Amino acid sequence: MDFIKKPMEIENRSMEIIAPHLQGLNLSEDQVKVYSRIIHAAGDVEYAPIIRLHPELIDSARKALEKGCNIYTDVEMVRTGINKRKLAAFGGQVFCKVADPEIAKVAKEQGITRSMAAMRSFGQDMNGAIIAIGNAPTALFEVLRMVEEENLRPAAIVGIPVGFVGAADSKAELAANTLVPYATVEGTKGGSPIAAAVVNAIMYIIDNNRD
User: In the chain, pLDDT over 90 holds for what percent of residues?
Assistant: First the structure.
């Protein structure tokens, strides 16, 4: 059986298949790249009309990455999916504390989720950083609380938690915020690979070299 074997050829062909589904959405060239990578990661063209990017999202995240910003994630799957070698080339690191025993202890004592406790522990270190949430709506709600109540100002929030309890509501609250540029997806769809894909897409906009 004959099939495409080279990774970049597979990716390029995938983008060609995705392209017609983005026509008519009035996207910039960079927005097309982010939308395409989201759809590619999901394997689902039905994402096209429900992706929401703040007008300043790409520019704000790109400038932060170029300055060597760090990335803070809610779960290990998001951390694992981010191209850490590319991020390191810009001077940044990616952090996740959800599996930290101390975080588990704090979460139990306070009656909150570990992802909420992890976000609280990062605190003001997240100023000027990128926050990428792909699993836990509670993490996104907590970050948005910090934005409102503690004057937290990350460069961008990629908030794409998945699921049926809280996910859609947390993403709607993110999209309603006027203080921090964001990327999200309406409804229950999303997940760690999607959040990581947004971050990677912006890094590839800066430098598409995959070596």
Answer: 91
